[in-house]
Design brief:
Layout (H helix, E strand, L loop, with lengths): L1 E2 L6 E2 L7 E5 L5 H10 L21 E7 L5 H14 L4 E7 L6 H8 L8 E4 L11
Parallel strand pairs: 3-4, 4-5, 5-6
Antiparallel strand pairs: 1-2
Length: 133
């Protein structure tokens, strides 16, 4: 805490947290960020130029997989790498593209994380994931 020179009372500094969003190519990471920040959906894929992750520097992770593909296996590998590097870390698993499959299949994907402490979120291109401010 810093001291406020005007009142002599301590003032709290905002907490800064580095959050890393990772997942396989074409699972919708950019679409989720655009939906969250700008409330827009653009179906145009982005090109991943480099995936270099600073696991040790991050305080939290968002792991994304597309439920219409086998990318959840890569998310499980990434999760294991994170847990082997950091003991206590916050992880949110995002199941994206739920609009492309049937409900019974999405449940079978999500049971893969049911024994973990991660939060699993299901989203699609029209999901309202932006907080109301």
């Amino acid at each position: 805490m810093e001291s406020n020179s005007n009142s002599g009372k301590p003032s709290e500094s905002p907490v800064r947290l580095k959050i890393v969003m990772i997942g396989a190519a074409k699972v919708g990471k950019s679409a989720i960020i655009n939906q969250f920040l700008y409330n827009t959906f653009t179906p145009k894929p982005t090109v991943e130029k480099l995936r270099y992750i600073y696991i040790k520097l991050a305080g939290a992770f968002i792991l994304v997989y597309g439920v219409n593909s086998n990318t959840f296996l890569e998310v499980k590998t990434l999760r294991d790498q994170i847990h082997s590097t950091k003991e206590a870390v916050s992880i949110v698993v995002v199941s994206n593209k739920i609009d492309l499959i049937k409900a019974e299949k999405e449940i079978s994907f999500n049971h893969l994380f049911s024994d973990q402490t991660e939060i699993v979120i299901l989203v699609g291109p029209k999901s309202e994931i932006r907080p109301k401010l």
